Amino acid sequence: MRLRMFLVIGLLSAPLSPVFVFPAATYGQEATDAPDTPAEEVAEVEPEVLAVPDEILQLLKEGKPAKAAEVLQTAMESDAVAEEFKALHQTIAIGFVRARQYDKAMEQFGAAVEFELARTDSPTDAQRLASLIRQVSVYGLHATQPDLAAEWADNAIGKVRALEAEHPIETQTPLSRLIQVRASMLARDDEDAAREMLAKQVAKLEDINATEDRSEKTYVELINLLTTQARLFKDDDGQDRVASAFEEALEAYPESTVLMAQYASNEYSVISGLARANPDEAIERMEAAVAKLTPFEENRGVELTLRRIKSLESRIESTRKQLEMIGQPAPSLDIDGWANADGISVEDLEGKVVLYDFWAIWCGPCIATFPHLREFREEFGEQGFEVVGITRYYGYTWDEESGKAVNGSDDPTPEEEREAIAKFLQSKDMKHPTIVTPKETELQSNYGVTGIPHAVLVDREGNVQMIKVGSGQANADALHAKIKELLEEAS
Which PROSITE patterns does the entry mention (predicted)? Predict the structure, then answer.
């Protein structure tokens, strides 16, 4: 069977999977659309080779990325299609990512990067290369050789810079995105170098935006770079520079839905951060953002982000309540029963520094805090400190065969679920007692809980001294320091 190569490319473009990565050029063409091709350019392609994309995608759906990689390697031995099939390396890499085999994923990503570097000779190609490098930078963090992603990013930047002389404006979008990725990697080890890299590209885009060559795209990328600077370096004027760039961009392009959608996304991020630290400023910023965005809410992207911004109001009010709680008596406990507790009562907590940990069996971030809670209890337990978990009924039972808590169709009794909670904690080597609240309770609301894990630290007099929401080392360090301080004050 004699077929032109554009038919092979057309096969690869079939919408077989949401993770399929399409080669460049003429995919999607019908045979009748193709230009005449001299006979010597027509390749002989075996039918089984043409079926390779379907076979690979089926193997990936079955969770067999290693087998998919073998099939690709065999298919690439056919000179007729080897070059175009290289695009499938990226698809297989994602299969390995889903299987959490990150080193294998990086092998496939490496082949994909090599392929894209070789065929990048236009701004459009550079966009595709930048997207691949951004993907690699995320998954490369989990591999044993994360420096590979940095090396590939450097090579990609060099490739795009080589196109810059011929395409000085069109290359700025992929170049800016590659620089954001590389600077984010670099900032972990060399902040000064990361600052310099970003600053040079910012200056270049500011110069372009001062000329007739400016466009919505150049403003979008400038704002992205400034946002990256603000995120990485936490400079006092970081968000002010972002705001100034938005003001200038929207003055130049007042009807731009692209810029307005970007503005909406940025405002959500800023307000979300303020919601946990400064509720008054968060409300003020929210009101300003809503007023500015409402005229553009017919745009789907703006409308969705505007809705998310408005949804932050409950979190802001929760933060306000939390701040008002500091120094005040902790709300009374509402207890339906205890789990993982051996004869403990509320009276046993009197006179102790207590960390109330609002959590749930199904909450991954809650479980991520367990090592910290265990360490707190081991270090301070003999000094008058206790951890007390607080959770709800969620319909869990304990499966002895699997050794796991399961949420099935059965409706367990409160006693059965408390037993499941206890066994779950014991399976994690957690020895602290846990309160299970009644199904109809206002305890979580009284403590300002809108998300978990939610930690409330109470001093020996029963007054709230600190509230931290979420997992992570920063929260753990803050709680550790405060526990130590409260115990030393009382000694």
Answer: THIOREDOXIN_2 (PS51352)
